[in-house]
Known about the structure:
alpha+beta, 6-stranded antiparallel sheet
Amino acid sequence: MKLIPLLLALIVGTLSAQTAKRPSSRLAVEPGTIHVEDILPKALFMKVMQDSPIYVSSKLDRAIGSMAPGTIVKLVGMSDTAFRVRGKARHGDTSGWLPTAAVAHPDPNLVTNLKKLHERQTKVEELIAAHQIALGMTGEEVSASMGKPTRKSSKLSATGKEEKLEYVIYERVPQYTTSVDAFGRPFQTVTYIKVETGSLAVNLKDNVVDTIEETKGNPLGGGGVKIIPGPMVFGF
């Protein structure tokens, strides 16, 4: 009879471990706001400069507590008029919205740069979902979109590091076969085979796509090469 309690303990322990490893979900993004915590190269902390209520939404219409001057908060999201932060309010740890005037940050162009960063990230995610690439992407973004290259080479010089990623592009082509079942009725089956349709070479300079060369076929499509802004550098 001791086996049952032991099994229950093992099950509870396994479930607890799985729960502990489960990543926290992203905060819901309100219309007209952007979530920046996950796209920043590192956490951005700001200081509360004046006594301020902290609000439940970016409309600043319902306070859930207050922040004392000097409190250090972590930036989570933003709108045109408010920052979503995470930190210690007077009543305890919380996440909510503060007016932009209530906090100080090191970069006077922070809001503009964060909007540009968000726009770039949105374009990158669209390219990755479509398995496409563009000038200005990083090597990691190319790998996320195209997978592991067929061939890779690199060169170091006084001007920096250059890499060349070569990809063979395949397309799944359906092959139809007609057969007859036991009752003499025809039926059709389909199988897919990989057919090489093109190849391209991606040249990176200091880990940013500098040129893209179609070495066979037209893997980039009729629209030609796409261009996005290069990765942004933040001074914090």
